Every structure is written in C-alpha cells, then in structure tokens.
C-alpha cells in the first residue's frame, strides 16, 4: 500500500544567500554571478491555475512544463518528446499504448508519482463529470490500467496514431487524486518549479523545486507579472521591472527595442489561428450566404497592418501555415465588398446589426474596430461589447451568447474542434466528424495529409468562421537572457532552459 499523501507544501527553499569574499591588495574586481531570478510579463491573468479544468491560454502560459507535466510534452521545435513517461510503445493497430514512467518522480508535496495517478488523471478527464476544456482529447480512451507502479496501459476504442501528441497538451498533465480538487488555487504538480503564491490582480510567484527528477533549472525564482495595458508593458520593459515579455502587446514599439542594445526582440511563429468567430447556430448566421458575405467584407491585411503592425500571416482556414499540410485557401474569402453586398441581398439581409464581443488582447480590441468599420461599409452594423477574459469564457465560450467575436486559438493542430457541434461557434455538419474519425484511424502519412487538406477545405467552403491571420510570436527580452522559446508550438512560457549570461 502506498503511503497516505500529504498536501502540506514544504515552504523552505535553501538559497545561497551567503557569499564570502577575501580581497587581497592585488586582486581584481570580484565577478558577480549571473542572476537566478526572472520576471516575466503577461497580458492576461489566468482565471485559475488548473490546466485540466480551464480553457484560458494564460493558464498554460504560467504552468505548462513549469509546474505541471504530462506523459509527453512539446519540445521548443514542436516535436513530441518524453515527459513523465521515459518511453512508450503502441501495438501494430495503434489501439494499445504502453507508457513507462520515470523512476523517482515526486509531486511537490513529496509523494511519489505512480501509475495510479495517471489512471486517475485520464479517467477523470474523460469521465461524465469532466470539466476539462479539451475533453475530446480523451474520448477515444476505452480503458486505462496500471499493471505495476511504473507502467500504464491505455486501450483505445479505435486506432489513433496521434495519441502521444494528444498527451502532450496542457489539458493532459498528470495530477494526483488528493490534490486535484485544489489545483485551481494551490497547484501541486511534478515540474521543475513549485507554486509559492498568487497575488491576484498582480502576479504569480514560483520557486525552484529542489526535488525535481530532471536537470535543475538555472532559475531559483520566477515571477509572472500581469500587465494588460500595452503602454504599461512598454514602460515596464524599458524600466527593467520586467525581464522578458514573450508575447509583447505593443508591436508598434518593437523597432525601439531593436535599436536598444539592452534588449533582444524575438519574433517567431505560434499555433494561434486568429479568427472572427461566427455563431453558426444563431440566425441569420446559420445562413451560409450571410457568413460568406461577412468573410468577403473583411480585409485581413488591414487587420494585420492596423492591429498587429504588420506581424501576422494571412490564413484562409483553421490551420497553421507553417504546417506541411497547410492549404492556402485565402482566395475563397478574398476582400470583395461588392460580392458581400450581393450575398446579403440574396439572403434578404438589408438592415442587419450584430453584436461583436471582444476579449482583452490587443489583436481583438484593435482588430474589432477595423472589422466593425469594414462591416459597416457593406451594410452591417455592429454593437461592440468589450469583455474581460472571465466574462468572455462564460458568455461566449460556455453560454454561446454572442454573434461575432475575435480570438486566437493557440492550441496545436486543433482543427478537430470543428467536429464538436456543442463548441462555441456551433458548426454542425456530420461530414466533418466523419473526416476526423477517418483521421484518427489513419496511420499512413499520405492518407493523413489528404484528410487534413480535405478538412481545411470543408470548413473554408462552409465559411464557418472568418479566418484572419496566424498570430506571430513577438517577444522582447533582456539581451542577457537565453533559453526563451522563439516559436510557440503550444501556449507556454517554458522556463526549464532559461538562464542569464554574464
């Protein structure tokens, strides 16, 4: 029998505060050691700190790979690599996966990670009462077993060659039954950092985990500082109050940082498809002609230039342009106001007003003003409603109370969300889930590529949403910081390799 788990955290962390210096008359100046703390700027404060029960990207931006870990994980280049599972193998049909856990892994409360914790996590995520925002990742699981404390066997209802990829998502991190109910405010994971405190409205503080199973991080302390205002973010970076802002909210100021040797500007790619989402279940947006009209009314390049100051790649479907299976379908929804007005007339919509709900990110607030102007030019009025992130999650994502909204979907390879008729934008074409079922059972790369291309075209031709641009990762950091991700294969600020140079 395993020992009873305790939830009391060890609040002491030994830090090398003492430094003895002996100065001889001929000695040169003492060399100061590089700092071992960091302050990371973030635009949005997470609504909670439990990635297994929240949809906000800001949760993973704090906890992914720092506090919590999964069986597998995403590397900086987007590949799937071992996490808490040192290795795994699948049977020939890709219906049974066996994961071999690392030895010596402990949760932050001191108790050992065992296979039963994995069974609990996966059963909880797929259970009838699951609040996991990506429950579909686990729906293919038929059963989970723990033949011994370091082995987990997952049996799937159908073949799934992408199962290790699904287990790398932040929604699939491993939690213990004793602490699962309090992860939102007192997270207990297995990662290289442990939770110290959350000052609501201001910051989250992490400390290095002295009992981490892997290489110790160079940083002893990390603070995530929440600065939603772009002007305040710029001031904080210039003053040195923040060491890095991986997703900087004021791209118009990047040239100033590029000209300043104190800073390094980091521009990369993300998995963030930025869309003008349409509520397909609500009239008149349930009419494809109205949706197509809106798509032709919007000039995506205007939004990239006006809201993102040129940073962003135009997209015509819900798929990342850097993926080898991407299909450029932007011409299907090219800017054509004349066609937009004709389609609205065909649909009998001559006096249309729609509500545009905008969450806090600058791409949404700035982009929303441009969208409203361009819709007005074809005869559609909008009522703009600015929402805080928690309000957006409740009103738009959960209760589907909206007409239009602008948001970036930053999860990797998430085209499968269009197979969920209860998802917030309400796409309900049976052909699409059938495509995703084919994809799940396909193991041949050529067949998978064909299916992915067909899926991209289907949602583009149905004008489910208006596909705007792939969000660029525009970051600013102190020039002496190394190890920050350039690209964002998932929504994370992974600090495991971050360190200061002399």
Descriptive terms for the model:
about 500 residues, 12 helices, four-stranded mixed beta sheet, globular, alpha+beta
- Cα separation of the termini: 50 Å
State the helicity in percent bands. 10-25%
Main β-sheet description? 7 strands, mixed
Rg (C-alpha, Å): 24 Å
Strand content: 15-25%
Specify the overall morphology.
globular
Give the rounded overall mean pLDDT.
Answer: 92
Q: What is the count of helical runs? A: 12
| DSSP, total strands | 19
Descriptive overview:
It is a single chain. This protein is of the alpha+beta class. It contains twelve helices and 19 strands. Strands 11, 12, 13, 14, 15, 16 and 17 form a seven-stranded mixed β-sheet that branches. It starts with 36 loop residues before the first strand and ends with a strand.
């Amino acid at each position: 029998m395993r020992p009873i788990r305790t939830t009391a955290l060890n609040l002491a962390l030994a830090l090398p505060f003492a430094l003895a210096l002996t100065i001889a008359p001929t000695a040169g100046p003492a060399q100061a050691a590089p700092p071992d703390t960091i302050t990371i700027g973030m635009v949005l404060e997470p609504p909670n700190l439990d990635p297994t029960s929240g949809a906000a990207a800001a949760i993973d931006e704090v906890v992914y790979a720092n506090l919590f870990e999964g069986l597998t994980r995403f590397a900086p280049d987007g590949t799937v690599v071992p996490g808490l599972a040192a290795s795994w193998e699948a049977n020939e049909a890709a219906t049974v996966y066996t994961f071999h856990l690392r030895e010596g892994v402990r949760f932050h409360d001191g108790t050992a990670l065992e296979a039963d914790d994995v069974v609990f996590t996966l059963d909880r995520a797929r259970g009838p009462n699951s609040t996991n925002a990506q429950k579909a990742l686990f729906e293919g699981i038929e059963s989970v077993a723990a033949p011994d404390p370091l082995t987990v066997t997952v049996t799937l209802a159908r073949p799934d060659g992408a199962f290790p990829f699904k287990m790398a998502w932040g929604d699939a991190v491993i939690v213990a039954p004793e602490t699962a109910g309090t992860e939102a405010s007192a997270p207990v994971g297995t990662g290289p950092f442990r939770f110290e405190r959350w000052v609501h409205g201001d910051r989250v503080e992490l400390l290095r985990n002295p009992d981490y199973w892997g290489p110790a991080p160079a940083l002893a302390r990390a603070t995530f500082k929440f600065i939603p205002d772009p002007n305040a973010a710029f001031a904080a970076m210039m003053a040195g109050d923040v060491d890095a802002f991986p997703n900087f909210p004021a791209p118009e100021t990047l040239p100033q940082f590029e000209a300043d040797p104190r800073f390094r500007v980091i521009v990369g790619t993300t998995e963030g498809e930025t869309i003008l989402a349409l509520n397909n279940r609500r009239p008149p947006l349930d009419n494809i002609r109205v949706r197509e009209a809106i798509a032709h009314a919007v000039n995506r390049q205007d939004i990239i230039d006006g809201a993102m100051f040129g940073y962003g790649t135009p997209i015509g479907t819900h798929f990342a342009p850097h993926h080898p299976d991407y299909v450029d379908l932007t011409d299907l929804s090219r800017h054509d106001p004349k066609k937009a007005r004709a389609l609205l007339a065909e649909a009998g919509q001559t006096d249309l007003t729609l509500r545009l709900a905008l969450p806090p990110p600058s791409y949404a607030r700035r982009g929303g003003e441009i969208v409203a102007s361009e819709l007005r030019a074809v005869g559609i009025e909008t009522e703009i409603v600015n929402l805080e992130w928690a309000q957006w999650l409740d009103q738009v994502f959960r209760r589907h109370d909206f007409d239009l909204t602008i948001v970036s979907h930053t999860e990797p390879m998430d085209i499968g969300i269009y197979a969920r008729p209860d998802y917030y934008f309400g796409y309900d074409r049976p052909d699409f889930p059938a495509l995703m079922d084919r994809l799940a059972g396909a193991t041949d790369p050529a067949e998978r590529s064909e299916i992915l291309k067909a899926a991209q075209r289907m949602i583009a031709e149905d004008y489910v949403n208006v596909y705007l641009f792939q969000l660029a990762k525009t970051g600013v950091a102190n020039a002496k910081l190394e190890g920050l991700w350039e690209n964002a294969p998932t929504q994370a600020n992974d600090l495991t390799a971050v360190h200061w140079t002399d």
